[in-house]
Design goal:
Length: 343
């Protein structure tokens, strides 16, 4: 049906809202309202990588050798069990929950690209699990017998259900903050654990894989939801009252306390390079950093900056510059990650 008063592309763009606005399912991208969404999407494209090209064969040998203590092996598998669960949650959350309410096509495009990358991460963890574990199903389904992991998974799942069950602007605003915590806090006990092992010369292929995932989660995915936070706030200023700020800070605080509990649990009292104090200090400082990026008060006033607690983290987590984009060039000749069984 034709419109008796046809709109221009500028009219359509001006009417757009990040979420709960008029739908533009034609995906007309000639003019856009949120240029940051396209900038982030293009960075995601430039960061394209392929998990099959990361060599996990030396890790498999290390994992089975006396170089790894039983405590380190247990920590590795527990960390891997959670992050593999978490990216599955996020893949479905983006497509079936958050994405359903986004009404700006350029933002929908970035969300779709992020969901695709979460799928890549799920595959990455699959290769790691199947290269290391004698029985991969024990890792995939660890939550069925590990009460701490089950509690953490259920907490995250329940939080995602709030927007699904009651899609209001306030719940969308909290869901955006929740996704900042998911991308910017919930992965980081595992990331820190993998890097500590690698700095000790152990499981270095796994750390290479995690560095690519960390770049996706900690840079473009985090940037996407941080940008969504400010865009949604500008369009819904009545939502962002003092009670919202208090709820958002408490959300970040509770997520961090759960991640600290999990980090201490997986290292089981600690081993060389890993201690309860290190994980707690790192995660509290990281939480303050995430809150400040959203212009929120610190959830842990007085906590040290995470860069002071773990001064090597930011530099260590960067993928090798020579192989940052494996799609365009591959100067390093990786062997395909092994899926072989235990001999």
């Amino acid at each position: 049906m034709t419109n008796p008063t046809p709109r221009t592309a500028t009219d359509i763009v001006n009417e757009r809202r990040l979420a709960f606005g008029p739908r533009d399912d034609m995906m007309n991208m000639s003019k856009i309202k949120y240029p940051w969404a396209i900038e982030i999407y293009e960075r995601m494209e430039n960061n394209t990588w392929f998990p099959k090209t990361v060599n996990l064969s030396p890790d498999r040998d290390c994992f089975r050798s006396e170089r790894m203590s039983d405590r380190e092996r247990d920590a590795y598998l527990k960390a891997l069990a959670f992050v593999s669960n978490l990216d599955g949650f996020q893949f479905n959350n983006l497509i079936q929950n958050i994405g359903q309410h986004i009404t700006a096509p350029e933002v929908s495009l970035a969300i779709a690209r992020q969901a695709s990358e979460e799928g890549v991460h799920v595959r990455s963890y699959q290769f790691m699990v199947e290269a290391m574990a004698a029985n991969p199903e024990e890792v995939y389904l660890m939550f069925e017998r590990d009460g701490m992991l089950a509690k953490k998974n259920e907490y995250i799942r329940a939080a995602s259900e709030i927007l699904r069950n009651e899609p209001t602007p306030r719940n969308m605003a909290l869901a955006i903050v929740g996704n900042v915590t998911l991308e910017g806090i919930y992965f980081y006990a595992a990331f820190l654990l993998f890097y500590i092992l690698a700095r000790g010369g152990k499981m270095t292929g796994s750390a290479d894989m995690i560095k690519y995932i960390n770049r996706d989660e900690g840079e473009t995915h985090l940037d996407l939801f941080t940008s969504m936070h400010f865009a949604f706030r500008s369009e819904n200023p009545d939502v962002y009252d003092p009670s919202f700020a208090a709820d958002a800070v408490e959300l970040i605080r509770q997520a961090t306390l759960m991640e600290i509990e999990w980090g201490k649990y997986i290292i089981g009292g600690g081993f060389p390079g890993a201690s309860d104090q290190l994980f707690e200090g790192f995660l509290m400082g990281l939480a303050n950093d995430r809150a400040r990026a959203l212009k929120l008060p610190d959830p842990f006033p007085g906590a040290r900056d995470y860069r002071q607690v773990v001064p090597w983290f930011d530099a260590f987590c960067k993928p090798n510059a020579g192989r940052a984009n494996q799609f365009e060039n591959r100067p390093t000749d990786y062997a395909v990650g092994g899926l072989g069984g235990w001999d």
